[in-house]
Design goal:
The chain is α+β, with helices and mostly antiparallel strands. The chain folds into two domains: 3-46 and 239-371, no CATH class; 64-222, no CATH class. 55% of the residues lie in helices and 18% in strands. The chain contains 15 helices and twelve strands. The protein has helices at 3-12, 15-53, 76-81, 116-119, 140-146, 172-175, 182-188, 208-219, 237-271, 273-281, 286-319, 325-328, 335-352, 354-360, 365-371, and strands spanning 57-61, 72-73, 86-99, 103-110, 122-125, 135-138, 153-156, 159-167, 178-181, 194-195, 197-202, 224-228. Strands 1, 3, 4, 5, 6, 7, 8, 9, 11 and 12 form a ten-stranded mixed sheet that branches. It has a two-stranded antiparallel sheet with strand order 2-10. Helix 9 packs across helix 11 (286-319). The relative contact order is 0.19.
Amino acid sequence: MNLAVLSYRNLMRRPARTALLVFSISIAFATALALLALSNGIETTTHEGAQERGADLTVSQADATDVFSGFVPEDYGPKIAALPGVQGISGELAMFAPVDDGQQILTLAMSEDSYFWGEMPVKEGRKPAPGERWVVLLGENAARKLGKGVGDTLTLFDHDMTIIGITGYRSAVNRGVIVARLRDLQELAFRDRQVTAFHLALDPAYTMKDAEGLIAEIEKLGRVTVAPTDQLFSRDRNVAVLRAISQVTSLIALTMAGLSVFNVLLMAVQERVRETGIMMAIGWSNWRIIATIIIEGLITGLLGSLLGIPLGYVACAYFDYLPTIGQYLNIQPSLDAILLSVAGALLLSGLGSLYPAWRAVSQTPADALRRA
């Protein structure tokens, strides 16, 4: 009989207790997986949205705490557009704006000459006519949330706006926004001649070295920083805090699972004192006995991980029903997050079994048989 089979049979002696242990590990695993997927989902969704809109670089305020709090003077636009390699530019004011009954919805206001207008897919209605004001387009998710369609009116900062179109974007973040004219939102939000960022489309022939030179030229203009658009949120302090909290909470959850393994295996070792003494008396080495107990811990960790994967997907699906999160983010566990969580569960389950294993061999065969 090999050690894995023996370890499995030891666990099956108390099936109810083993099942509860595996379930507790699976809950911890699912929690860790869902939190890792949430923190990764922000950057993944941003990357998908940037690719769909066709933005390569984003120019934003250098010392802003997050992507929505900074501003860049609008008159930087023509200077940036004149630089070699810039094929398209879009000045954009982005904010969570009060809509109708006070709910906050992400609103992107674009300059009239933005190249985004030409690339924007429209599922219903139309795009704004030149010079047209006080009109908006809704992403499909935003339209569904508001219960509105083409021809309806919504209030943005207590100003009536006519809905002239529904966009046909595929990415979650683009499907959840309101698209407005830059001049309108600047006036309503008292951000005259300011934009949150400039999004740039580069000449396809530009190399990485060319892009580095362009970035250096743009950053000479003033207090601005330039980053690939799909990495925009990687510098956001709020996202960094969320990522840190997710990682710490995941570690705590998996550590609690490791402690559960510790408690259960310690009880099992105490129950099998006589058996351990007999194994030592007939010549089993300490390392073989230790290995048997550690394998028990690894088996429970593996079973908990396998059960935790579908539970993690269920937890991620729940995020879709949370305000703001479900509207803008597509949260699905990545293979990297799954493998990292499995590795963490196995590691902490193995560590949780070390002390019970040491406790099992810390006495002589005679002592073990006498205590039994």
